[in-house]
Specification:
This protein is mainly α. It folds into three domains: about 5-150, no CATH class; about 155-245; about 265-460, Intergrase catalytic core (hpI Integrase, Chain A, Orthogonal Bundle), CATH 1.10.443.10. The protein has 19 helices and 16 strands. Strands 3-4-5 form a three-stranded antiparallel β-sheet, covered by helices on one side. α2 (about 50-65) crosses α4 and α16 packs antiparallel against α17. The chain is elongated, with a radius of gyration of 31 Å.
């Protein structure tokens, strides 16, 4: 790690963000000699300097005096709105100097020594201002000089700031609100990130990440859940690197978590039709049929509007546009982009088109507002929530004498598996389902015969003799 010396005993430490030659030029001093003793890590507030310390700091102060205040100011003129950030003020009880960088606090010294000379404090402030002028945030520019356990550097506070950034991305549609909700949940009281409470972002190491993973396992978190939590924390670390690419140039290695491959329960077409046959209300039947026979996700079904049905072409083929998905599990959320942000228009079976036209004749589709849901829960006369749709599906499974197959596996996953088995054209199935990665489609080809559920056989076996 390169460091810049302000003389034989005073150094700028822990600053990969400072390029040595530039920092030296900024402060008007030479680079640290390799023979100098290593600096003390940390920026702890120092007491009154001893006579020896005052003498050792006098030399760098004299070196800095040839750089006038006007010349120092010229170095930061590029930061038009930032050059007034921070100020050098007298230290507590008038002893020494300190740099006021509120709301982030005060800088009391470097290398564990207080500022005995005002010019040294001003030099460091100018370096910070130039960092900001080059694009660093104020928080990132001052963080390395604050005490390692200062509020700014605590993981909990930096993580909360990161969640705020992600919430802003979700507000403009660049990120799923459900994803941000999970990030926020990890940081709640008693949440997974609480393990890092009071620790500094500079204390994140591979060893501590492994210890955290073991602690989560002892709490009973499954490998899949731990993988999601550590994946979120890795994204947080990547954001820290974006904030200060030189200070966080290297992200610690994360532990490898082996997640057992899940074997889904896949319904045969006959079994799926038996469950669909238990639904007598059109809205309910159509909601599950679109998911099961057209491979739509639950959020895509719930987000459909009457105008998404495009009618029939000159050959009589009905078409449905999939351009959005619900971003929350509740009924009152807002539609947003689909999971892969791919819009598609699909041909759909004629009986599904007949059901849509019975609910929404052409005149009603034209008059409907864009925010009006095509499909509603007849029990509440509101848009389906994910939980209501799931409960409806499980009731259908029970009525058909089937095991409680999860909603996603019994509808979209089972339907996509049947598509691939019938067509053998993975590219066509990938486009129909809206996948951007071929591996997402390939997983439907890995279904074993043991995963298939045929209700007809199951019913026959259960019939009393």
């Amino acid at each position: 790690m390169s460091r810049t010396s302000l003389g034989p005993r005073v150094e700028l430490i822990g600053r990969p963000a400072l390029r040595p030659k530039k920092a030296a030029a900024t402060l008007g001093v030479s680079e640290r000699a390799p023979s100098d003793p290593p600096p003390r890590v940390g920026n702890e507030r120092a007491g009154p300097p001893s006579r020896g310390a005052e003498e050792s700091m006098a030399a760098p102060a004299r070196e800095l005096r040839h750089l006038s205040h006007a010349e120092a100011t010229l170095l930061v003129m590029a930061a038009e709105g930032e050059r007034q950030f921070g100020k050098v003020v007298p230290g507590p009880r008038g002893k020494g100097w300190r740099i006021d960088v509120r709301p982030y606090g005060y800088l009391y010294g470097i290398a564990g020594r207080g500022f005995a000379d005002q010019e040294i404090a001003l030099g460091l402030l100018n370096v910070i201002r130039i960092e900001i002028a080059e694009g660093a945030s104020r928080e990132a520019a001052v963080a390395p000089y604050l005490r390692s356990h200062s509020a700014v550097n605590r993981i909990a506070n930096r993580y909360a700031r990161w969640v705020e950034v992600k919430e802003a991305e979700a507000d403009v549609g660049d990120l799923s609100p459900r994803t941000v909700q999970e990030y926020r949940r990890y940081a709640r009281r008693g949440g997974e990130v609480e393990w890092w409470e009071e620790q500094s972002v500079f204390e994140i190491t591979t060893a501590r990440l492994k210890a955290w993973n073991l602690a989560l396992a002892k709490r009973g978190l499954s490998p899949a859940t731990r993988k999601h939590v550590l994946g979120a924390f890795r994204t947080f670390m990547s954001w820290l690197r974006e904030e200060d690419p030189r200070r966080f140039a290297i992200i610690p290695e994360f532990p490898t978590i082996r997640v057992p491959e899940h074997e889904p329960v896949i319904l045969t077409p006959k079994a799926q039709e038996a469950i669909l046959g238990t639904f007598t209300e059109v809205n309910e039947w159509l909601s599950h049929a679109l998911a099961g026979r057209c491979g739509l996700r639950s959020g895509e079904v719930r987000a459909l509007a009457p105008g998404d049905y495009r009618g029939r072409d000159e050959d009589g083929v009905p078409w449905l546009s999939i351009t959005k998905a619900m971003q929350t599990l509740s009924w009152d959320g807002e539609p947003g982009p689909t999971k892969n942000k791919r819009n598609r228009t699909l041909p759909i079976p004629a009986d599904l088109a007949d059901a849509i036209e019975s609910l929404w004749p052409a005149s009603a589709r034209l008059a409907a507002d864009k925010g009006t849901p095509m499909l509603v829960n007849s029990r509440t006369n509101r848009r389906w929530s994910h939980w209501a749709l799931r409960a409806s599906w499980l009731r259908g499974c029970e009525s058909a004498g089937a095991p409680p197959v999860p909603l996603y596996e019994g509808t979209k996953h089972s339907g996509a598996t049947d598509m691939l088995a019938r067509t053998k054209d993975r590219a066509a199935v990938r486009d129909y389902l809206g996948h951007t990665d071929a591996r997402s489609t390939d997983k439907y080809a890995k279904v074993t015969s043991g995963a298939l559920v045929d209700i007809a056989k199951r019913k026959k076996a259960d019939t009393p003799q």
